[in-house]
Design goal:
Layout (H helix, E strand, L loop, with lengths): L12 H14 L5 E8 L2 H8 L1 H18 L5 E6 L2 E7 L3 H21 L8 E7 L8 H18 L4 E3 L2 H43 L1
Parallel strand pairs: 4-5
Antiparallel strand pairs: 1-3, 1-4, 2-3
Helix pairs in contact: 2-3, 3-4
Length: 206
């Protein structure tokens, strides 16, 4: 099983799952937060300057994250410009300061290397609760939802997943399930009508 990202040298999602689940089994779960990170308008950089330039940005971000994590903290590249981190949680202000520092380092990298574009980072955070059973995929989903909220609302660079978002996510899932059920019912009804019409045509020919 591959556990490293070939482009950046960072761990991949397989490695992150193993590391995260191992540390959660051994440590107090409430001490950690899952952070989803990406670069705003990364596709525009690829489109305007080519994939080679985009790859250089990703390698630089991986290097920044490597310097940012401490013992028993982990990061991985998930896909494209999306990365995930498992960080110790010592309070919101401290965590927000750490994500802001990552963002500043990437801004400074673009400035110091005289890139013809600026770089802005976005982060979504999910705090792992003491009382819950840790599930990597679910924690990442929540962190991703917070990151998506940060992108769409522009409220802050780093956004915390909370109960309001949880209720909205559940509502959206319910609406999706209802829409799918209605669509299937409509398709089933349409297929039934078509079958009856074909049978009717066959009887006329006979």
């Amino acid at each position: 099983m591959c556990i490293r990202d070939r482009l950046t040298g960072a761990g991949n999602l397989n490695q992150f799952r193993m590391d995260a689940e191992k540390v959660m089994e051994e440590k107090t779960r409430g001490e950690y937060a899952v952070v989803s990170a990406d670069i705003e308008q990364f596709k525009a950089i690829n489109d305007a300057f080519g994939f080679t330039e985009g790859d250089e940005v990703l390698r630089s971000l991986a290097a920044v994250l490597e310097r940012s994590v401490t013992e028993e903290e982990y990061y991985a590249r998930v896909s494209a410009d999306r990365f995930v981190l498992l960080l110790r949680y010592g309070g919101w202000e401290e965590l927000a300061a750490r994500t802001a520092s990552i963002g500043r380092e990437m801004e400074e990298w673009a400035e110091n290397t005289k890139r013809p574009y600026s770089i802005s980072m976005i982060f979504g955070v999910y705090i792992v609760q003491d009382a819950e059973k840790f599930e990597t995929s679910l924690a990442m989903d929540f962190a991703n939802y917070a990151r998506w909220h940060a992108k769409t609302t522009r409220a802050a660079q780093t956004v915390l997943y909370d109960e309001t978002m949880r209720r909205e996510e559940l509502r959206q899932r319910h609406l999706s399930a209802v829409s799918y059920t209605h669509l299937r019912a409509h398709e089933t009804g349409r297929n039934l009508v078509c079958r009856l019409l074909l049978e009717k045509k066959k009887k006329k020919k006979q």
